[in-house]
Amino acid sequence: MADVTDLAFTTRDRSWENFAEEKFRLAVEACPSGMAMTDGAGVIVLANAATERLFGYRREQLVGRKIELLIPRRLHGEYHKQRAVFALHPQARRLQANRELFGLRSDGTEFPVEVWLNPIHSGEGLFVLSVIVDISERRRMDRLKDEFVSTVSHELRTPLTSISASLGLLLGGAVGKLPDAARRLLGIAQTNSDRLVRLVNDILDIEKIEAGQVAFNFKRIDVRALAGQVIETDRAYADGFGVRVRLDPTAEAAEVYADPDRLAQVISNLLSNAVKFSPRGGEVAVTCERRADCVRISVRDHGEGIPSDFKPRVFDKFAQADASDARQKAGTGLGLSIVREIIARLHGTVGFEDAAGGGTVFHVELPDGTQVADRELDAERSPDAVRILFCEDDPDAAMALRDGLRPLGYSCDFAHDAADAIARARSNAYAAIIVDFELPDAGGMRFVCQLREQPEIYKTPLLIVTAEGGGAANRQEFTSLNVLDWMAKPVDPYRLAQALDCAVARGANGRPCILHVDDDHDVLDLVALALQATARVVSADSLEEARVALLAHDVDLVVLDITLGPVSGLELLPELKKREGTPIPVIVFSAHVADLAADPQMQPRLNKSQSSLDELVDAVRDRLTLRPSRDEEDLP
Amino acid sequence: MNPIRVLHVDDEPDIRDIVDISLGLSPEFRVRACSSGAEAIAAAAEWSPELILLDVMMPRMDGPTTLLHLRKDPRTAAIPVLFMTARAQSREIEQFIALGAQGVISKPFDPMTLAGEVRQRLQALERN
User: Fold this and answer.
1) Which carries the bigger pLDDT value, residue A140 or residue A552?
2) Cβ contacts (< 8 Å) between B91 and chain A: which residues?
């Protein structure tokens, strides 16, 4: 009896299962975005109706084919790279490429896409579900919006310039004295044309900032001096309202790390806002204050304060507490929105509170310029730039060097002390490291030795800058530590770039060079990516290519696949010797490792299907750094 | 004293009139107006102005391209150029200066003080 009941339950479970599966299938089919699942080799195993529609293929034309079918040829390299990244870190996320992504239709036309990747782990290995969204329409709207903004910018400003200048000439007496009534009317026209100019400028500003089209030029800024300048510039405006503006005498000297133009705009907007809402004869005071980890700039007015029901909307666009208030009409309703947008991009915060004794205090908090650690990474790095690390405790000198090197194709990150430098150098692949010999927490020699002890960077080219110019004795000591060059401060970026060019060009001497031999291009791509932080990887898919690579590069280590189609990778073994005759260490990374003869040159042997890329990276690092002969070989 | 020759380049006839009137308020300036970059290049070579006021956004040839042509021609290479443009960011100003301009006058400008501003800029350039 019990068996029959069990059977009944099982049958019901099955039908539920089928129903659930069917629902799931229908949902996938109804999804308006393309969904394509690929196996570990990039072969499509499932595609939904939207994928058929998007790409113009029937399902049977897709399943069993490589996903490259749907990608323009010029993007295949990018795709292989992305797939390798995903295989290393399989997490659901949007595909982030350095360039725009496109899909390729069956008729050869392309369309812009956004792709979301989702890992699906199954007993048969890692599958990837790609969700593909056609973003043609979004792109078209973006373009229309950009065109509109630029049209508004030019077409609206041009007549406004003429109107406001003509009015200015008439009111300024350029054509003689005017009757009083005419002056009054022209005055009204001028006030309103000025307001239109401000409105257009504000709308364009906020559009540009929100769209990320405004470049922020970060510098260390003396806030008190900047606030003083803004007050001077805006004094005439305040005079028009009969309001006195001043820098509070208690304002502290403080530095922030921000864009001076944009910060001036913020202070100016807060100031004009405070002026507008001050009673005639009132006073607006600006002050600066150093806090634990930030600098606070405050603007205080003695107006009526902000009504409590309006407080939540203060920073909204075109927000006005009382639209009938003539003072508000003088503004654009965008000033505080612009403040909020700018401050967000300056990594600060903005807020306000009722002031004791009436009025309001607006305050802005920005990172302390003397604590610029989080700015040390070059945020504006172009993807093609060569990354270098500059260990320098003076941010101004470091910034100047970054600015000087950027147009020469280098991106410069900083480290302000030795500990920071070592941590940063270990976690990033830098083409070279520039060391300030007078760093505060490490004697120059000790620091360079420390750097050289790190397995990740023991071969990275080093350049030393010093106020002393570097004595001959010092240089002698440092030749043993593979220091490429010495330079006196202040460093000339052109001279430095020349030295760096040499260092990068002779990368083989600077970073270890690995030759990877494998006939599977996917594996070559994956390994190159996994090892890029550790070494320069030269890939070869045949014995011939490997021989050419051995001639062209000073190879430090070989990662070798044994089965290269019909031939054996072992044929290469007798040729794997350094120019001076010492054998080049080999890591076997192959499907067939079990039956290899013992050979100290070939250690370790990793089975491709059983070893992860992380294990390979660890093995490479071990072999590169723990070779007993390393000291004699590389540190002569 | 000879008047200071200023070549003003703008595709907008209204702006040309306004600059003409504004600088005309001061007898020391003599203004000649051009409506395009091509016209300006020819006029500059022939008239040798002491200063060129150059609009940035113009159809066909924009201000920066006009400037590059002016800098290539030995007859006009040394003539100071001030761009006139709306709301230039400091980075744009740096770019204009890198192209060989001497500075920027922002639009909308105050027509009653334009002559004074141009005079000051010229004096500053002479000092340098």
Assistant:
1) A140
2) 215, 217
